[in-house]
Amino acid sequence: MKTARSVKSWGRLLAILTALFLVAAACGNGDDPEEGTATTAAAAGEGEAAGGCATDPVRAAFVYIGPVGDAGWTKKHDDGRLALEAALGDCVDTAFLEGVPEGAESEAVFERLARDGNDVIFGTSFGYMDQMLAVSERFPDVKFEHATGFKTSENMGTYFGAAEEARYLSGMAAGAVTEGNQIGYVAAFPIPEVLRGINAFTLGVQRINPDATVEVVWTSTWFDPVIEKEAAEALLNGGADVIAQHQDTPSAGEAAQEAGGYWLGYNDDMSRFAPEAWLTAPVWDWGPFYISVVEDIQNDTWTSDQYYGTTADGLVNLSPVSDIVPADVRDQIEALKAEIVAGTFAPFNGPVNNQDGAETVAAGDSPDLGTLLGMDYFVEGVIGSASG
Question: Torsions phi, psi of 240, nearest 5?
C-alpha cells in the first residue's frame, strides 16, 4: 500500500524544522545528514524513474492549517491528496504536515520542504500567503501553489473556487426553514473569502425569504470546537433558529441540534454529527486540481496561474439537501444550480446593495473576479461588522 512520505503534526516538528533550517542556512547547502526528516521509502529509489513513469516521481508536499481529521477543510484537501496518489500511483510521492500555524512560523516549514527536494508545495490557508511568496523567490526551481490567496510569482500560483455559488444555494435552504426570520452565522476571519460567502448566503436567504436577516459572530478561528460552539450558542440564545458557519468543525451544528434549531455546514457533508439539525453544505473536491498540477509538472507544462474553480467544473458543489427543506424549495435550488452551471446566473448579479443601502452592483451588472476577490463589505440583511 502506498503511504505518504511524511505524516507529522506541526507541534512535534517545529523545533526540528527551526534547528535544521538554521543549520542549513549556516552551511549553505542541503547535505546535512539530518535532512531526511521528510523523506520516505518511496524516495529511496530517487534518481531512477519509477516503473511506468516517464520521469522520476513528482514529489508533492501539502501544508495544512488543521488536522486531517477536522471533518472539514483540511480533511477535504487530504482527500484530494489521496485522490492524487490513487490516480498517479508511483508517479507521485506525497507528504503532508498538519496543524501548521499561519504567519511567520509557516515560513520555516516552506523553507524546509523546498530544501528537502519537493517539486511542488501546496499551502492550504490564506495566512500562508506572504511566507510562501518569500520562500518561492528563494527557490525558483520549486513550484508553489497557495490556496485562497491572491499573490503570485513566476513559480507560485493560487487556487480557490466559487464557494459563493453553493453558499447562495444553501442560503435558499436556510431561508425556507427559519420560523423567526433570524439566522446566525459563525464566521472565521473578516477576509474577502469569508465576507463573500456570508453575502452570497444572505442573498440566497432573501431570495426565498426577504424578511429574514443573518447575524454574524466572528470567532477568529478556523478550528476551535469550543469557541465555535459557544458562538453558535450565543446566536441561538439571541433568537436564531438556523446556524451557518465558515469553520472546519461541526460544533456549531451540535449546538444547533441541542437547541432544536437547524444547521448548514461547510467544506464537507457533516450531517452525521447533528443529523436532526442538518440542512446542507457547500462542499469541495480538490482531487482533480491536484492531479492536473502534478500532471503539468510531469509534462513540463506547469505555469503560475490563478485558478478559480466553479460548480460547472466540479470543484464546488452542494451536498444533498435535507428533506426538512420543503420540496418546492429543493426544486428551486436544483433549477438555479443548473443555471449556475450553464453560466446564466451568478450570485452577485445586480442589483446588490451594501448594509447602508448604497448600490454596490447595478441592475444588469455582475462583478468581475477581481472585484469578488477583494470584497470588503456586507450586503443588506447582514447584521454585524464586516471589519470584525
Answer: -70, 140
